[in-house]
What does this fold into?
Amino acid sequence: MKISVITAFPELMRSYAASSVLGRAVSSGKLEVRIIDVRDFSHGAYRQIDDYCYGAGGMMLMAEPLAEALESASGWGKPYVVYPSPQGTHLHQELVEDLSRKEHLTIVCGHYEGIDERFTQKYVDAEISLGDFVLTGGEMPAMAIIDAVSRLIPGVVGSASSVTEDSFYGGMLDTPHYTRPAEWRGEKVPEVLTGGDAKAIERWRRRRSVERTLERRPDVAARAGIIPWLSGGAYVVEVHY
Amino acid sequence: MKISVITAFPELMRSYAASSVLGRAVSSGKLEVRIIDVRDFSHGAYRQIDDYCYGAGGMMLMAEPLAEALESASGWGKPYVVYPSPQGTHLHQELVEDLSRKEHLTIVCGHYEGIDERFTQKYVDAEISLGDFVLTGGEMPAMAIIDAVSRLIPGVVGSASSVTEDSFYGGMLDTPHYTRPAEWRGEKVPEVLTGGDAKAIERWRRRRSVERTLERRPDVAARAGIIPWLSGGAYVVEVHY
It folds into this structure.
């Protein structure tokens, strides 16, 4: 998979591309990431990439440098262009899976008041938001999208099970997890988890998962359809409060 | 304001703290950010910070190194502890405003299957999610939270108007924005925006904002209460489709 990022703040994106989990994916050749500095496509004596917003004040990125930056990335195949913006669709796991199947994902990072709407209309395939809050630019969402997408590439996360057993794959919130020591600062790990009865552990995890989802995210419980989770039997009564 | 970040991947967080907008906030003294490497609080010959999950497999962060890392940050005043996790409350602008009023925000980054639930129960004040998608760790959400919070600190973003005029402050999605040139690759800026009639511009912006919100995020329109937006008069009919 290939990912291009068009940004006016390339250093942060470059240190991200070189770091941690993503660094391993990149160095193993499973993922190619190219950071494109929009300033390389500026024009005139002042190397301008932004200008005042018509009728509103505030600064925004101009269409031409972004378009030229995008055209420079076309050697990697037709880009699927994502523009992170608070006006976009909320990112969710199905959309992440969708993006992970693109051959060449290109993320255009806005700043200030955003980017010229004519660029968005002409080139952007998906406007994506991380949620109803305001960020200084598109770099954080770009990193979050790359992180979420890259972990679906086989071999990037340690084992397939750590992808498939994660939150939301069953449609419910994840259960609480515990590790050693069995007693820590007076608090013990729930006995069932250290008991070695695999069926009892599975029952406990499902029950906690359903309980948690009902407590914290009833919307998710509704979406997931709680019925298949309850069909196993005995724990139905326990979660039915 | 003070922000501590407890992480097993300190380099990325350090390059973030030194970069772009946040770097300016930090160097101007308006924000102090401390990156705490959880490995500095590991024990034993192997400097272990993670271990197998009871009853599930997968690796997770142990409670003791996290607790000691947290205690090491207490010199900055009582921390308000945020743990980014897919099981948390979705981040939204009101929550960001809330966090921006904390004296000492501390973000604990999980990895793998997460962190020991006993640590969460004992120390975490808020479990916060960026949305229903899975990331490799808490570093991306930590950066997004810091970015969103720090831009509310007076003087961090260029002008107060760029904070207050942004998306969601009026409860609606932002309007499209345009900048020079007035004609770009055959596409013109909407005439009203270049005309200089401030009232007409304001009317156009409100109408597009309401239209966009109805098209893309009817949930937001419902939450914002569309009535005050329509009370201005003439454009009511135009958006009422």
